[in-house]
Design a protein that fits this description.
Blueprint: E1 5-13, E2 19-28, E3 33-37, H1 44-51, E4 59-64, E5 67-68, H2 73-77, E6 80-83, H3 95-105, H4 112-121, H5 137-149, E7 155-159, H6 167-182, E8 186-191, H7 194-200, E9 203-208, E10 211-217, H8 218-225, E11 227-234, E12 250-253, E13 258-264, H9 268-271, H10 273-283, E14 287-294, H11 297-308
The chain binds adenosine-5'-diphosphate and magnesium ion.
Length: about 300
């Protein structure tokens, strides 16, 4: 199936001369959750703004299901829902009304059944007559999502959906986004929480200084770039690595008291931790504790952005 969204050479230089997007090429697959990761100022909100017609690109093209978004902004906008980064909504409005109104903004005819379905799916039905200002922070966020879904878009952008949200609420939000994907909506979210991408995304793109530096399946990314790290606390400190261990990815730390092992996922077949443990036993190297961990997406991301800098 052709991608649902294609960005080609997309560029944005703001009036002051700042290059926020530098020839971005990106394809979004139908039905996926794509997480766009990047530090603050990387260009995430600008990218979303360009697709949603809020930021005028200075170069490149945006195509939604074959339709040119720069030439046909209204047609494309009707297919897209946006949950903005800033919580901005009229606090005095009533929930159901504001959601129904959002639908109308896209020229869709009034349909109370759709509004009800959206509100129910977000557990907001009981609050349909409440004023937005009366709701908790988590519910206010859900109202923003309801507004973005009111016109039944098939692409949903969520710009930092859980920024400043507590851990429990963040987990609720992840569940909700998963359920939306299961209902067939293509989801593009931006985040600077790596954990969020690790938890939810099918694919991950990393943007830094307006450039896409990587796009990959999450699983592939973890498998390819993931590392295992282990630390052996030695029973007797070493002054130098024994020659018998020269072939292993090892280093001494803490004045020879700790043996550190670092290996990439690709190397583990021949130089795996289990094999190392057997080797140490055979050489009579005694240790008190062994801590091992696999690197997370967080480690990988920090590596990437630091290298790119
Ligand atoms: N309206 C604007 N005018 C000038 N510069 C802007 C404007 N909006 C954003 N920028 C700059 O563009 C860069 C990218 O911003 P943004 O897309 O908001 O990044 P992110 O969402 O990844 O944090 C930043 O350096 C930001 O200061
Ligand atoms: Mg942003």
């Amino acid at each position: 199936m052709p991608p649902i969204l294609v960005l080609s050479g997309l560029s944005k230089t703001y009036a002051g001369g700042h290059v926020a997007l530098d020839s971005v090429d990106l394809e979004i697959r139908r039905g996926e959750i794509f997480a766009l990761l990047g530090p603050n100022g990387a260009g995430k909100t600008t990218l979303i703004g360009a697709v949603c017609g809020l930021v005028r690109p200075t170069g490149g093209t945006i195509t939604v299901d074959g339709v040119d978004a720069i030439r046909e902004p209204r047609q494309v906008r009707a297919r897209i829902g946006l949950v903005p980064q800033e919580l901005s909504t009229d606090m005095f409005e009533h929930v159901a009304h504001t959601v129904g109104f959002s639908r109308g903004l896209f020229g869709k005819r009034r349909d109370d059944a759709v509004v009800e379905r959206v509100l129910r799916s977000l557990s907001l039905w009981d609050k349909r007559d409440a004023k937005i200002m009366e709701l908790s922070g988590g519910m206010k966020r859900r109202v923003l999502i309801a507004k973005a879904l009111a016109h039944e878009p098939d692409i949903l952008f969520l710009d930092e959906p859980t920024a400043g949200v507590d851990v429990e609420l963040r987990r609720d939000m992840w569940k909700l986004i998963g359920a939306l994907r299961d209902s067939g909506v293509t989801i593009i979210l931006t985040t600077h929480y790596i954990e969020e991408a690790e938890e939810m995304a099918d694919r991950i793109g990393v943007i830094d200084k307006g450039r896409i530096i990587l796009v990959e399946e999450k699983q592939t990314l973890l498998a390819k770039l993931g590392r295992t790290e282990a630390r052996f606390t030695l029973a007797a400190p070493m002054t130098a690595l024994p020659a018998d261990l020269a072939d292993w990815p090892l280093a001494l730390e803490d004045d020879g008291g700790t043996l550190r092992y670092t290996i990439t996922a690709a190397e583990t077949e021949t130089r795996g931790l289990a094999a190392l443990v057997r080797r140490l036993d055979a050489l009579g190297v005694d240790y008190r504790t062994l801590d091992a961990r696999r690197s997370s997406l967080e480690d990988i991301f920090v590596d990437l952005v630091e290298k790119g800098a």
